[in-house]
Amino acid sequence: MVKAHAICHTCGVQHDAAERPPEVCAICADARQWVPQDGQHWTTMEALRATHVNAVRRDGDLVGIGSEPRFAIGQRALVVPSAIGNVLWECVTLLDDETAEAVEALGGLAAIAISHPHYYASMVDWAHRFGCPVLLHRDDADWIMRPDHAIELWEGETRELGGLTLLRLGGHFAGATVLHRPDGDGTLLSGDVVQVIPDREWVSFMYSYPNLIPLPAAEVRRMAAALEPYAFERIQGAWWGTTIERDGSAIVQRSAERYVRALKGEPL
Q: Which residue ranges in the chain fall short of pLDDT 70?
């Protein structure tokens, strides 16, 4: 039987090559994700290429990459210029020739950085195609479903990356990371570690979004304190158009205070 890299249909994360898929996706069996009521479903890159395409278009002042129709969690990646070349922030599962050519036209990739395991997608395929490393925080190493030499684990609270700063923020996952971009008035690329919500005057924080499990007050306070030294007007979340255009730093701080008041049962 031929070995294949199975892809979880629910979270979009690619697994190590095997003759048959796992019984269940460990990422989706965790309390921060979910397994469908009708059971685990799997696909492959070849099958995904037959049913989906990637849109490559502007999102704010960056270029985004997202699959159409929506696949798995539905996040889009961002191509972020840096002093070492383009950094792909987050990852999407589908990688085809058209997407690769579009990224090459932008200058290729020098590195890939991902906020947390839900967006690991087919990161190894992307790293191999562009000859670049994937930077993940060591605290989330146990969630790597397809180990590979291209994956570089970093430790500590921050890592500089061509003028950008990776910041281990924790919360959603122990190694959950955001990316600070100092250009202009500053941008926080937050994934859903700091969640951009419909009311753009606020953000939120959760341990599990689909299962609505909150974070402890102390953890939210710690996250806000870790972000306080970084100036940013804009926050860009994990999906197309999830952008806060101004006052981002202050919004994070007051949102953390509101979150803690809510946990205490105090008026909002």
A: 1
